[in-house]
Amino acid sequence: MHLNSSLGQLLKPAKPVPTAAQRPAPRGLVVASTLIVGLVLLPLAYLLLRAAAAPPSAWQQLLQPRTLAIMANSALLTVAVTASSIALAVPLAWLLVRSDLPGRRLWTVLMILPLVVPSYVGAFSLLAMFGPRGILQGWLAPLGVQRLPEIYGLPGAWLTLTLFTYPYVLLTVRAGWRRLDASVEEAGRSLGHGPWGVFRRVALPHLRPSIAAGGLLVALYTLSDFGAVSLLRANVFTQAIYTQYRSSFDRSYAALLSLVLVAATLAILWAEQRARGRTRTNRAHGSSSRPLRTVALGRWRWPALLLVGAVALLALALPIGVMLDWLALGLQRGETWPGLGRAVFNSLSAAGLAAMVTVLAGLPIAALAARYHTPLARVLERASYIGFGLPGVVVGLSLVYFGANFAPWLYQTLALLVFAYGVRFLPEAMGATRSALVQISPRLEEAARGLGLSPLRASLRVTLPLARPGILAGAALVFLTVIKELPLTLMLAPTGFATLATQIWSATAEAFYARAALPALLLLAVSSLSVAIILSQDRDHA
Amino acid sequence: MPDQPTVPAPVVELHCVVKNYVHGDHGDVKGLSLMVMQGELLVLLGPSGCGKTTTLRLMAGFEQPDAGVVRIAGRLVADRTRSEPPEQRGLGMVFQDYALFPHLTVAENVAFGLHRLPKRQRAGRVDEILQMVGLAELAGRYPHALSGGQQQRVALARALAPRPAVILFDEPFSNLDAELRQQMRGEVRRILQHSGSTAVFVTHDQQEALLLGDRVAVMRQGYVEQIDTPDAVYHRPQNRFVAEFMGAADFLPVHVTADGLASEIGLLPSISALPLGRPAEAMLRPHDLRVTPAAGAPGHGLISTAEFVGDLWHYSVRLPSGRSLRCHMPHTDAFPLGTPVEVRLDAGHGLVCFERGQRVS
After folding, report:
1. Are B70 and B77 in contact (CB under 8 A)?
2. What whole-number distance in Å separates Cα of residue B127 and Cα of residue B312?
3. Would A299 be classed as within a structural domain?
4. What per-residue string of b and e applies to A411-431 under the rule 16 or more CB within 10 Å gives b?
5. Is A103 in contact with A312 (CB distance < 8 Å)?
6. Fold equal for B10-238 and B248-359
7. What CA–CA distance (Å, rounded) separates B248 from A110?
8. Residue A208 is part of which domain span?
9. B279: Cβ contacts below 8 Å, ≥ 6 apart
10. Is B61 in Cβ contact with A189 (below 8 Å)?
11. Does an H or E element contain B309, and which?
12. Is A294 domain-assigned?
């Protein structure tokens, strides 16, 4: 399982194991899975209830020009970021997989690494560089430059999100290239088509599902992103919902906006299914497949190096350089970081707790999905993916209402926050566990049963140890995602519970860049671990 | 082809071609010359790593030679300095895994190489070819919905459609099960002959080579050991390697006497090429020998293994020298292990002898 395939698997139900029979699933497993899926569906269900009870005025508000502008902005930003990510990632993937670009392994790591920069850290670095009171203005001020071009708004958000989400497309397209058999390309050449013709008529149709899958991840990320659009004040759904939640007592409008956002998410999922097309991969069997041939770039390697160099500069060197610069400045000014140790502790403990809870919650559903192919198992598995379609602000908003109205004893507790993380990130843990289980032949368990072990002991002594690497990878993925998570943490954390993410957010929002720099660097260091996980799994597969 | 030349002309010509891979010498070609004649089916046969696939890819233009030249229809297409890309060579190729385009239908796959044909002629050509391979009713299907044999036929149709000068087959039947393989071999040969095609096959299966080829080139470690008709490479192999590769054979030491070739199983018919007194080895294939129980007498040897395979008994006879001879007998001739037997040569063709591994007769 590497990230690309695991991302793909997270989004679509597992293919049945050919050997698994249509046995009825153990009742305990079904009950546990149903309960967990029920809990995961709670935020969406509550939101629907709220919307149903919304006054007519809230519905009217939904058709006002202000709302329509939000929709248009969101659509524009999503389309623009997705298109530019694809336009950037497809050539990059070709260079990294198919060409003899010097230093390909290093460039591959560097081109994937921007994935670890959370959008609000990216936005922070862009603001700290190009924003008012930023580094660039400091350089230009002696020259008499008073104002810089506006960084706030859609263009800034577009640039930030493109720079830090294009690696999703790069990963899927890179995997797509690797799945292409050399003989298929050679067949195209032997039938009289040149290299470009074969790319257009053979490789591109083959890559289409990979491009669609990567584009889907970028589009979902953009639509649900809260950090970058808020800091850069782009008037899109998530920012509008959060503003409504903060400023208005009537929360029906925010609930309706959230539902429109969920509908938009569903529309994107549907579009991706369409774009994936009828293509089926028809992989060669046997040992006949040859590795794809690399293309000699010749003199073109200089512009190619320029491209990867520019991307690395903007998406890696710039954020890190800016943070280091502001850190140095902060140290010079005698800046202190009150509560930083506490924030680190809070981040680690919340993420650790969330990883544990989420993996445990994912276990029964993963076992059900991997081993039993009953209709109920399929429904439960699909339903557990709902977190993917629910942006953080939506889950946050729903749980704030729910907590305030029905469960005041839960409201503003760590338990509710961890629950919210679980709803959002269950697919990550469940997907990793399930693909680990799918790879373990049920015959092994049967062999253990044949040697006299009870079903439970067979699972514990055979299946679990074999699945452990996959399960741990899922836990690590959840841990690292939670560390970076912003909107849920902002809306649901107990009063005074600051994390690295919330510290960066509040300091940046008030333009205290030096104060944001240290937590941002710490966060980046922790997140980089996730790329190590991605690449190590990638190698297993290569 | 209005004016077929009466003297066959080489369609593909390899002259002293060398190709060395960087990693080891698996698949290297070390100095190979051969010609593919107009209208013939040539088979490149050899064990894994002998360079047969490399030779095919050199013809197709997927590899560039380190030395030597490749000519197609008399035109120089590759040497050490330049290599015409595959799409300009006008050769068809059928891949081991068929390499069908999964996103295109059968008809679209077949039409893929027809882009130089005027648009309105394409559909007609696709129909014609699909008729020929018997797939007309599957034109709208996608490759994943076809059986292995059908995929194979699409691959053949796709390669045939642009009327290539030569069609190259890279182990085309190795992904089919035994029965289907048998059937497809015959069918492919029929289609190629029907369309008057020139073809080069690569295979490691000697039976397939004998069945398909007008000529067979037996390769080993980057060289051609022998290139000849199927009958000749089987019955008159150039050396012991070819002899053993083409089918089971035992080599019995003989020496030339005035009466014939003296051996452990008695006198064998003489051959003219050897002078008196010279030691040599006679090639004995299992079906050239007969065993009969040596009633009362010690015989030539004892039955040491006996395997019943249905239509035949496979025996091996242990001679006093410790050598064994393999012999196939009809299914009715059952002898228990340890039976003393006489071994008799009953070949129906001339005996072939080797001296230091090379054929002398």
Report:
1. yes
2. 46
3. no
4. bbbbebbbbbbbbbbbbbbbb
5. no
6. no
7. 58
8. 3-279+305-541
9. B253, B254, B255, B355
10. yes
11. none
12. no
The number of helix segments (H) and strand segments (E) in chain A equals 27, 0
* Residue appearing with tokens 């699409």: B154
- Residue B287 is given by DSSP the state G
Report the chain B residue with the minimal C-alpha distance to residue A276: B103
Tens of each residue's pLDDT in chain B, 361 residues: 455 555 667 999 999 999 998 777 788 899 999 999 999 999 999 999 899 999 999 999 988 999 999 999 889 999 999 999 998 998 999 998 888 998 889 999 999 999 888 989 999 999 999 998 899 999 999 999 999 889 999 999 999 999 999 999 999 998 888 888 888 899 899 999 888 899 999 999 999 999 999 999 999 999 999 999 999 999 999 999 999 999 999 999 998 888 888 899 988 887 777 778 888 899 999 999 999 998 877 889 999 999 999 999 999 999 999 999 999 999 999 999 999 999 999 888 888 999 888 998 7
Q: Which of A193, A277, A281 sits opposite B87 (nearest CB)?
A: A193
Q: Please state the separation of Cα A370 from the chain's center in Å.
A: 23
Q: To the nearest whole angstrom, how far is the Cα of A412 from the nearest Cα of chain B?
A: 53
**Distance, C-alpha A145 to centroid of its chain:** 39
- CA A474-A476-A477 angle, to 5 degrees, is 65
Residues 6+ apart with CB under 8 A from B152: B94, B98, B172, B173, B176, B184
Identify the CA nearest to B68 among candidates B21, B22, B28, B33. Answer: B33
The rounded distance, in Å, linking the Cα atoms of A262 and A332 is 46
Domains of chain B, residue spans: 10-238, 248-359
Instruction: Say yes or no: ipTM exceeds 0.90.
Output: no
Q: Tell me the three-class secondary structure of A489-522, residue by residue.
A: HHHHCCCCCCCHHHHHHHHHHCCCHHHHHHHHHH
User: Which chain A residues touch B162 with a CB distance below 8 Å?
Assistant: 191-192
- Structural contact between residues B334 and B320, judged by C-beta atoms closer than 8 angstroms: no
Residue A431 lies in a domain: yes
Q: For residue B164, which of A166, A85, A339, A190 has the smallest C-alpha distance?
A: A190
CATH classification number, B10-238, choose in 3.40.30.110, 3.40.50.300, 3.40.50.1000, 3.30.70.20: 3.40.50.300
Domain count, chain A: 1
Nearest CA in chain B to A203: B101
User: How far is C-alpha A176 from the geometric centre of its chain's CA atoms?
Assistant: 19
- What's the distance, Cα to Cα, between the start and end of chain B in Å? 42
Closest-CA residue of chain B to A186: B62
Structure tokens at A445: 């368990």
Q: What is the CATH number of the domain that holds A328?
A: 1.10.3720.10
The angle at the Cα of A56, spanning A53 to A59, to the nearest 5 degrees, equals: 90
pTM given for the model: 0.80
CATH class of domain segment(s) B248-359: mainly beta
The C-alpha of B143 sits at a distance from chain A's nearest C-alpha, in angstroms, of: 8
In a domain, A156, yes or no: yes
